[in-house]
């Protein structure tokens, strides 16, 4: 049963590897049962099967929806995976690395080392007698190695599940395990325990020396002091076309026909004036008071996926469905005043799979306790408690971080509410919720934080969604969730601050506040911001326009022989071929930064 816990862990950490390992493990259990010391004992395969079923039950909350609900996702990922498979197979000319020591590269497909193969072959030839277990691992190494070859492409391309492997050289995990076990045949041939110990030490030395990392790969990487969050990932995703669903669109719902972020959703026009009073909102639920003079459809700016539910007045469920060519979440509202709740509850399959996993964990705990293995019994109890704690969400009813807004309609946009959260001490995340009454122009939103004296503490002036989205792509009639990050000044004392906003056209001067018509949002609490510890770095005062200044920098040189940090300015910086020169640039904003800037460092000779 403990093996079931380990196998379930593999299912959760890397399910593709599980797909490859499980057949090998099942066959190995059969071989061991038929040829091992307890061959013929039918309890052995029963316990083995129980361990497999336990692993399946514990991880059911993960793999069951992955398999059954894959039909809800686009086939784009499979099409891209098929291309990956063709580019990542072995041929007779590229499967073996002949270098000693092994040459570590990022070239694909990854190779097996000649020393690995030689030691495994020698171990298999020396071991006497060769039991069925030795023949099994030899066949595993051979068959798995052949399965990486280009001649098996028709097999890998024959089914979507097999395409999900993406790279056949993932089988190197199994090949390497088999080769390592076969190499121990060298030790098994030695005549005494003393020679076994000496031989083991010598074999380990040969393996380590033959596969040692080159010195340049052992160079320590500099410490990255940056805190990466959604505001950092959004520009990266936008520039690379990832759209938050990975580079292969693995999680793109199948109802999304138009993935171009610059394209406006194709929604039917309506002249029905729907009034929305947003009461509470978070990423998983919104609650609103709605008033419609006639039946109308409410569109939300999120992808539809089964598992979203809508409830009217807490009693009547409403159908939720995908609309437009972008597969947006939509719900049909009847006429009249109602309280609407739209929430992510997960599909029934996901809920049942989660309860199945919890039930198996508790049954496993009872099993271990009945055998007085109390230490092992604690593990499933701890996992079950952690799962319940992680999945216990809160209702967003008038939470402290949500502010209702009473703002006028500007440029076709009505601010319904704002949710805020302070992250990483020095950043305020602002999540506004807009209602589009008409297609807005390309615009910026300026957010300001005001202290009790009326002074501006901080501000951000950016396009929607961390400055990567375009408001003119929002169609009329959508409830859109938005996001901004405002940096807070070092040393800011904790307290209550007023939040306000203004809309401005992209054609207007971003630094000109005089044309901005600010609307108050409300008062929010802000925790104290630590002061910056000034490092021993080179002082500078280089300004780029009116927005940012380069205050200082430090430099480190990493070479094969030594690492010199923070070289003083009086020392000449001497670099040699192969050295790694790392500059840390310290920027300071003089006002709200309106663009996503990119920095380039060039190393020039005399």
Give an overview of the whole structure.
- A hairpin with a 3-residue loop joins strand 6 and strand 7 (316-318).
- The strands form five sheets. Strands 5, 8, 9, 11, 12, 13, 16 and 17 form an eight-stranded mixed sheet that branches. Strands 3-4-10-6-7 form a five-stranded antiparallel sheet, with no helix packed on it. The chain has a four-stranded antiparallel sheet with strand order 15-14-18-19.
- Residues 394-399 and 561-570 have low confidence and may be disordered.
- It contains 16 helices and 23 strands.
- Among the domains are: 2-218, no CATH class; 402-526, Immunoglobulins (Immunoglobulin-like, Sandwich), CATH 2.60.40.10; 538-589, no CATH class.
- The radius of gyration is 31 Å and the shape is globular.
- 33% of the residues lie in helices and 25% in strands.
- With 606 residues, it is an alpha+beta fold.
Name some characteristics of this structure.
alpha+beta, 5-stranded antiparallel β-sheet, 16 helices
Query: Which word captures the global form?
Result: globular
Largest sheet at a glance? 8 strands, mixed
Helix content: 25-40%
Average pLDDT taken over every residue: 84
Describe the protein's topology:
Layout: H1 2-13, H2 15-35, H3 43-58, H4 60-68, H5 76-87, E1 96-97, E2 112-113, H6 114-126, H7 132-147, H8 153-156, H9 160-163, H10 172-183, H11 185-188, H12 193-210, H13 230-240, E3 275-282, E4 285-292, E5 296-303, E6 308-312, E7 316-318, E8 320-323, E9 328-333, E10 336-344, H14 348-370, H15 374-391, E11 402-404, E12 413-423, E13 427-436, E14 443-450, E15 456-462, H16 464-467, E16 478-481, E17 484-487, E18 495-505, E19 519-526, E20 538-544, E21 548-558, E22 563-565, E23 580-589
Parallel strand pairs: 1-2, 5-16
Antiparallel strand pairs: 3-4, 4-10, 5-9, 6-7, 6-10, 8-9, 11-12, 12-13, 13-16, 13-17, 14-15, 14-18, 18-19, 20-21, 21-22, 21-23
Helix pairs in contact: 1-2, 1-3, 2-7, 4-14, 6-10, 7-10, 14-15
């Amino acid at each position: 049963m403990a093996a079931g816990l380990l196998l379930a862990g593999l299912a959760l950490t890397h399910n593709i590897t599980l797909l490859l390992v499980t057949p090998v493990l099942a066959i190995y259990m059969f071989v061991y049962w038929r040829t091992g010391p307890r061959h013929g004992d039918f309890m052995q395969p029963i316990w083995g099967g129980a361990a497999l079923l336990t692993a399946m039950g514990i991880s059911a909350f993960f793999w069951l929806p992955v398999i059954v609900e894959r039909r809800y996702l686009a086939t784009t990922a499979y099409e891209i995976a098929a291309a990956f498979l063709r580019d990542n197979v072995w041929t007779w000319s590229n499967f073996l690395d002949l270098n000693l020591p092994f040459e570590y590269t990022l070239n694909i497909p990854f190779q097996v080392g000649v020393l690995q193969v030689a030691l495994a072959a020698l171990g298999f030839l020396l071991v006497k007698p060769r039991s069925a277990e030795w023949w099994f691992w030899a066949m595993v190494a051979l068959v798995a190695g052949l399965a990486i070859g280009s001649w098996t492409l028709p097999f890998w391309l024959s089914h979507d599940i097999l395409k999900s492997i993406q790279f056949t050289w993932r089988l190197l995990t199994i090949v390497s395990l088999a080769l390592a076990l076969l190499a121990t045949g060298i030790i098994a041939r030695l005549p005494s325990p003393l020679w076994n110990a000496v031989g083991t030490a010598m074999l380990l030395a040969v393996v380590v020396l033959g596969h040692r990392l080159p010195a340049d790969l052992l160079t320590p990487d500099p410490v990255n002091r940056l805190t990466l969050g959604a505001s950092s990932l959004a520009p990266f995703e936008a520039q690379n076309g990832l759209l938050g669903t990975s580079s292969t669109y693995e999680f793109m719902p199948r109802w999304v026909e138009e993935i171009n972020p610059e394209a406006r959703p194709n929604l039917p026009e309506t002249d029905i004036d729907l009034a929305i009073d947003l009461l509470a909102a978070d990423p998983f639920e919104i609650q609103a008071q709605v008033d419609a003079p006639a039946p109308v459809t409410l569109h939300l700016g999120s992808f539809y996926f089964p598992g979203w539910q809508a409830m009217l007045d807490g009693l009547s469920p409403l159908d939720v469905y995908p609309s437009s060519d972008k597969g947006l979440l939509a719900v049909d509202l009847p006429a009249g005043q109602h309280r609407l709740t739209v929430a992510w509850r997960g599909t029934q399959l996901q809920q049942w799979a989660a309860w199945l996993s919890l039930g198996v964990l508790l049954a496993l705990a009872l099993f271990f306790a009945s055998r007085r293995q109390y230490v092992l019994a604690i593990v499933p109890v701890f996992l079950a408690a952690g799962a319940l704690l992680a999945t216990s969400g809160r209702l967003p009813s008038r939470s402290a971080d949500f502010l209702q807004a009473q703002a006028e309609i500007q440029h076709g946009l009505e601010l319904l509410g704002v949710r805020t959260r302070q992250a990483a001490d020095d950043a305020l995340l602002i999540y506004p919720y807009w209602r589009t009454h008409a297609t807005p122009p390309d615009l910026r939103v300026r957010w300001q934080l005001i202290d009790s004296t009326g002074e501006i503490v901080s501000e951000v002036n950016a396009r929607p969604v961390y400055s990567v989205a375009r408001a003119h792509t929002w169609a009329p009639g959508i409830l859109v969730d938005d996001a901004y990050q405002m940096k807070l000044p070092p040393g800011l004392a904790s307290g209550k601050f007023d939040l306000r906003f203004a809309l401005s056209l992209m054609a207007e001067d971003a630094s000109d506040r005089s044309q901005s018509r600010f609307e108050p949002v409300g008062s929010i609490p802000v925790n104290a911001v630590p002061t910056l510890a000034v490092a021993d770095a080179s002082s500078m005062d280089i300004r780029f326009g009116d927005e940012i200044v380069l205050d200082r920098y430090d430099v480190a040189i990493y070479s094969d022989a030594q690492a010199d940090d923070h070289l003083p300015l009086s020392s000449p910086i001497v670099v040699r071929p192969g050295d790694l020169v790392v500059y840390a640039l310290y920027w300071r904003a003089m006002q709200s930064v309106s663009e996503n800037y990119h920095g380039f460092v060039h190393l020039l000779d005399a």
